[in-house]
Amino acid sequence: MKKTAISFTKKTTHSRKNSYLSRLWLVLLLVAGGWVTACGPQSEKEAAKTENNIPMNEEELMRKAIALSIENVANGGGPFGAVIAKDGHIIATGVNRVTANHDPTAHAEVSAIRAACEKLDTFDLSGCEIYTSCEPCPMCLGAIYWARLDKMYFANNKDDAKQIDFDDSFIYDELALPLSERKLPAEILLRDEALKAFQLWREKTNKIEY
Amino acid sequence: MKKTAISFTKKTTHSRKNSYLSRLWLVLLLVAGGWVTACGPQSEKEAAKTENNIPMNEEELMRKAIALSIENVANGGGPFGAVIAKDGHIIATGVNRVTANHDPTAHAEVSAIRAACEKLDTFDLSGCEIYTSCEPCPMCLGAIYWARLDKMYFANNKDDAKQIDFDDSFIYDELALPLSERKLPAEILLRDEALKAFQLWREKTNKIEY
Are the beta carbons of A197 and B70 separated by less than 8 Å? Predict the structure, then answer.
């Protein structure tokens, strides 16, 4: 510890300046690298379109989502990818990182929605469309409704997902059942006390509704 | 810039040591502050229980979720709060931060699940229960299934949420409809190409299933 501290204090202003410059370059490289990673590999045709700001068509956007799903298997994630686009231009992409990130909500669609909202600085993606390599599970479909996306395109369906042991189909079946018949135990508690928050919300004048 | 660099290099090893110590204190204070904020205010009885490591009962845990939902209205969020507990001890809490964080997926339950998974370093919350101030919407209910929570308790229901203009009930109705009858337009594209990712997943030997 002491040695590090001493060697650090020995740096001259000049070498520190160089150090700042090299850090700046590193940051720029990382940002550029992150951008390339976020957009993923593209076909030459797609790359040319992106470069020339030409909108991609529906099949090209779906091929991008599929390519992400295939890459993600090699990268230790689930076989799912999603793209959010506006007027044929990709706003953001997402892949399934549930096990990698220890986040059961990190499905491709949810990840893409979060990334698109961050990029556009909004919680409302009206005017955008989602291309997902597999029919969304109820969690992701819910997220698509809350994000107000205009349309969804999907490739694999929930029965295909069931064939490789994903629970999408099971969760759809559960949601269709009345509370008392579901596998997940549920209990209602203290509704009278909880209604106070809803009354406060109703009475609030300067709220942002959504 | 130069001035800062020079004054920094003039520090002695001793003062740097002090600086490290004060930074360490600052980090500890921030961590402690974060913990207190994450747990939010408690009644005296709850605080005493937490201090003595005595498990809270179902009603106390739900009251905590309700208190969070009430506070959140004052803090510019939606009227929703959630608590994830294990053996009567709070693991993590969450509130609705959709508009505040520009994240349509930042519902109380999803936020609590993410926080609990981060805390326990897992994507599987088996053995935990969720207490939410309102019946989960399909997105959150889906997240509860994916997180493998043992049980859910809720207070307000989806019809109460409808009364204050939240779309929970509408989304439940939509999910129950066949694809072609939903308000959200949907289109199937390139399924044959997308199946490749599922085949790769099936053939992969070292995958983490979930």
Answer: yes
Q: What is the pTM of this model?
A: 0.77
Do the chains contact at A99 and B123, CB–CB below 8 Å?
Answer: yes
Q: What is the largest CA-CA distance in chain A?
A: 72
The active-site residue, picked from A46, A60, A109, A129, is A109
Tally of CA atoms within 13 A in the half-sphere of A207 that contains its CB: 21
Q: Which two tokens stand for residue A151?
A: 């349309």
What DSSP string runs through A37-90?
HHH----HHHHHHHHTTPPP-HHHHHHHHHHHHHHHHHTTS-S-EEEEEETTEE
Residues of B in contact with A190 (CB under 8 A): 59, 62-63, 66, 155
A153 and B188 in contact by Cβ < 8 A? yes
pLDDT digits (tens, 9 = 90+) for A149-173: 999 999 999 999 999 988 888 999 9
pLDDT tens per residue across span A102-130:
999 999 999 999 999 999 999 999 999 99
Hey, which residues of B are catalytic here?
A: 109
Q: Yes or no: say if B60 and B89 are a contact pair by the CB < 8 Å rule.
A: no
Looking up tokens 């992409």 gives A93
